[in-house]
């Protein structure tokens, strides 16, 4: 009986293994773990604060290199854009110069075609003046009259040929004086005409289309 009682009081192996640990050991271990976690958190916070407070000179080399490459690329882009702008302005100037040259050339060609007879007309004007002076001669001689009639026919033929080219005489007598059409060589007082009116024509004037070849030489009333 005593042996059986001792056996019951002695703890088995299973009971010893599952027996609760002392409370003091758990508290120490928990405090130790909390201290380690607090230390790790403080270290991480200090590391983050150090990174935020670090000066720009201590940035990582990789980030600094990327910034340098970006700045260089932007500078190159700006340089190319400036060159493109300069070439565009040069092209616009050349195009404007070419358009002006082409317009002047076209105007000169049109003027040359329009006034192609100007040189010939200028050379013929003295002959026309001689015909006009000769036709003013009065004679009773029949032979002289016949010659004058022939000269008048030639004179009329010249005027018709010149008229086809756009040549016409400038009207003078009785017209208001126009300095673009008339050349005043004398002024007189004449009650039969209003002031600044052509009274007499000394030499005919001619124009080719809208260009004056020679102004009329006239006398003007005051």
Automatic annotation (TrEMBL):
Amino acid composition bias (Low complexity), ranges on this chain: 40-53
Single GO molecular function: protein homodimerization activity
Gene3D superfamilies in alphabetical order: 3.90.20.20, Head domain of nucleotide exchange factor GrpE (2.30.22.10)
Bias kind Basic and acidic residues: ranges: 7-35
Keywords: Chaperone, Cytoplasm, Stress response
Subcellular location: Cytoplasm
GO cellular component terms, A-Z: cytoplasm
Primary subcellular site in the record, as a coarse category: cytoplasm
One Pfam family linked to the record: GrpE
Residues spanning the signal sequence: none
PROSITE patterns according to UniProt: GRPE
BP GO annotations: protein folding
Assembly description: Homodimer.
Task of the protein: Participates actively in the response to hyperosmotic and heat shock by preventing the aggregation of stress-denatured proteins, in association with DnaK and GrpE. It is the nucleotide exchange factor for DnaK and may function as a thermosensor. Unfolded proteins bind initially to DnaJ; upon interaction with the DnaJ-bound protein, DnaK hydrolyzes its bound ATP, resulting in the formation of a stable complex. GrpE releases ADP from DnaK; ATP binding to DnaK triggers the release of the substrate protein, thus completing the reaction cycle.
Family note: Belongs to the GrpE family.
Name the record gives this protein: Protein GrpE
Natural source organism: Parageobacillus caldoxylosilyticus NBRC 107762
